[in-house]
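so my prof wants the structure for this chain in the tokens format not the other one, which i didnt know existed until like an hour ago. anyway here's the sequence
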Amino acid sequence: MHRATVLEARQGLREGRFTSVELTEAVFRQIDRVEAQVGAYVHLARESALQQAKNADEKIAAGGAEGAPLLGVPLAIKDLICTEDQPTTCASRFLDGFVAPYDATVIKRLRAAGAVLVGKTNMDEFAMGSSTENSWKHPTRNPWDLDRVPGGSSGGSAAAVAANECLAALGSDTGGSIRQPAAFCGITGLKPTYGRVSRFGLVAFASSFDQIGPMTKTVADAALLMNVLAGHDPMDSTSASVAVPDFTQALDRPVKGLRLGVPKEYFTSGLMPEVASRVEEAIAKLKSLGMETVEVSLPHLDYAVAAYYILACAEASTNLSRYDGVKYGFRSPHSDDLLSMYQNSREEGFGEEVKRRIILGTFVLSSGYYDAYYLKGQKVRTLIKNDFEKAYEACDLIVAPTSPIPAFRLGEKTDDPLQMYLADIYTLSANLAGIPALSIPCGGTDAEGLPVGLQLMGRHFDEETLLAVGHRFQENTRFHLATPALAGE
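here's what i got, hopefully its the right format
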């Protein structure tokens, strides 16, 4: 049962082939078997999850499944989305044991849809990282190769889905943090358009970039979760007041004749040949399904990494100023006065990568450097957004690799922050432009069999086209059906 997709589980529950309690117990048995190897979770809510499952079974028995599309389905939540009944720690010492006094909007929507919340997944501290090695708790390992990273910062969610430790999960994507781990772990990950899903209750890293999205086994599951998650929220000032379609209806849209833009800037010397081969084979498959390709250009892509890390770190330095040891969270016991309490709490409470980004962000916002760095970064962001808008004049969506490389080894990039930042080079631009982007598995490397991700990027609020193309690809391939072999299964 734990291997089921969300749609399969939903059908099985409604047909009475198994109960939500049985399904949830199966998920926890899988967690007991493999979690010691993978380390996907930082908190498990076994007792409350089983109670939620029992309630779901009673509702199904009473004929109340209609209007509750996720009724009885076990899901996991990235540990920076507030839940009033489970800790929300952002995998940081600073928030160790913190329990929010309210649910995030997306959590309220999941609960209203009947989902069973099994626990909170590991991540890079405050979502700052590309490997889930920056967690204060422990690193998460890639289920496909336990010596490799699952990607980041939503590595715990990606690993949990890939290892069948949940049926689907929520992640957040600031610069690729849903799509890159989805590619590394061989699952489906969707970053919605900025503003499509409420950020209320999402612990902020970079507020003009952050977006919550689904991490699933299939595109069809992602569409179902988007039906639950999307929609305007008056509690989020950046939430877009736009109509929400039925994303599951988009799965059956015709794709014949769609123009796929292939940006030449993504296929350069930095792209591993095996990754390039899998992506080119995937593009050929899409063409065989009736789509056509056109070459497009994103000429300012070379500046995406620099612009992103200037802007995101600037926003992070502001957002993280609230962690001062006064109101909540970690407070250093080694303080003689108020100033030393501030300083020591932040020095001892934050990890090295978080402190690096706070310092960088404070620097680019400082007097004398604001125009040279932050203002210039904003101008480059506009240029990148304009590049995408011009490209979409010639195509309906853009297709590219999700990452230039497959999952790298644990510890391989921790001593070289620049190389770690470059791991997101193919995903950052979609966040800078605010457009939706989807990563789906498209095969594996020859020698190690490591998953490779295909990235589809669409126009603002056109998740439907991405889902239609991704679903058609998965209907005609079997890459999304592959699962890693873990000891004890």
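also thought this was worth mentioning. The chain has a mean pLDDT of 97.
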